[in-house]
Structure formats: C-alpha cells, structure tokens
Amino acid sequence: MYNQPSFFKDGINKTFNMKIEKNKVVTLTYTLKADNADGAVIQEVKEDKPFVHLFGVGTLLPAFENNLAGLEVGDEFGFELASKDAYGENSEKDIVKLELSIFMNNGELDKELVQVGKYIPMQNNDGHVIEGKVLSIEDDGIVMDFNHPLSGQDLYFSGKILEVRDALDEELSHGHVHGPGGHDH
Q1: DSSP 21-55
Q2: How many domains does the chain have?
Q3: Domain residues for 136?
Q4: 135 in Cβ contact with 144 (< 8 Å)
C-alpha cells in the first residue's frame, strides 16, 4: 500500500496550480488594517482557523474578490480598498431614531439590551437582520446607526492563499462551503 498524494486529502481532488476563480473554494489567511499597510489591525485570521469561502458567488466585497482572482496556493497578497470599494461612505439616512416601545420589556426600557455603543440585531421591513449601533438614548426614542461598522474607512488586506479546490456540487447548490471552515447542515 502506498501513501495517497496530498492532493487527494479528504477524498477531494485538488489540482496543482489551481487558480482562484468563480466556483472555487478558497482557504486563506489575512490581516485587515485600517487605512493602509501601516494602519491599526482590525482583524487577523491565522492558519489555525483560516477563512474558507466559495469564491465568486457574490457574498464578499467585489473589490476584495477582484484582488484575489487568479492567485494560486502559496501566493501572498497585499492591497488597499478605498471606502467606496469596501463598505461605502457613512450615510446620514442610516442613522435613525426608533420608538422606545420597540425596546420595552414589561413596560420598562431593557437597559441590559439598550446601551450606548452597543450593537443590537434588528429586523428590517424585508425581514433581514441588520445590526445597529446605539448612539444615544433620548426621552422620545433610541438613536441608532445602521451604517456598516467599517463604512467610511479605507481598508488594507494582506495574507496568503493556503488552498484552492473545486467546489462540490452540494456547495455550489447551497452557495457556501461545507465541512471544516465552512457550514455544517
């Protein structure tokens, strides 16, 4: 008996020099910094818990995917995204005052839930959950900011491509990765 080559790991055929393109599963590490390569670290994803994603299905920032397209295993990357290409600019229309009644529990304001600076999951008119940051608590309502936390911010990503493989049919039909680093049903 012989050892299976590493590209047959987990029973999934991995092709050498496979490039990142639509419908590939990409595993990578990255460091996200504010503004540029010298900016403050916002988030770091390391090899022990890498980011695993189904590429090209519209769930990542398009400019992020454009910068990764064509890369291969072992390639390192570093690129800046202007705020307009990331999460957009802050919008005043996304700062709203909501009625106090929304946050009442047995006739009392839920002070555990409603705190200045805290993010609260809310549901919009379409039924989607969006997070809003409590800006102020006023006598006639709660002022919340529904801008993305990174809106108005230029971003710098650097990292390394760890793995690229063909997506499984089930992953393509569900629109996300299954198994380690992905979604389990």
Answers
A1: -TTEEEEEEEEEEESSTTSPEEEEE-TTS-EEEET
A2: 2
A3: 92-145
A4: yes
Report if pTM > 0.85.
Answer: no
Structure tokens at 10: 């987990």
Kindly state whether residue 103 falls inside one of the protein's structural domains: yes
**Measured distance CA(174)–CA(61) in Å, rounded:** 19
pLDDT of residue 156: 98
Residues 185 and 171: beta-carbon distance below 8 Å:
no
Burial class (CB in 10 A: 0-12, 13-18, 19+), 26: buried
C-beta separation of 77 from 67 below 8 A: yes
pLDDT, tens only, 74-84: 999 999 999 99
Q: Does residue 179 fall inside a structural domain? A: no
* Domain identity same for 82 and 99: no
Residues 79 and 156 in one domain: yes
- Is residue 180 assigned to a domain? no
What's the Cα-to-Cα distance from 144 to each of 12, 76, 119, rounded to whole Å?
46, 39, 9
Asked whether the beta carbons of 176 and 182 are under 8 A apart, the reply is: yes
Q: Which residue has the higher pLDDT, 182 or 162?
A: 162
Task: Please tell me whether residues 22 and 73 are part of one structural domain.
Answer: yes
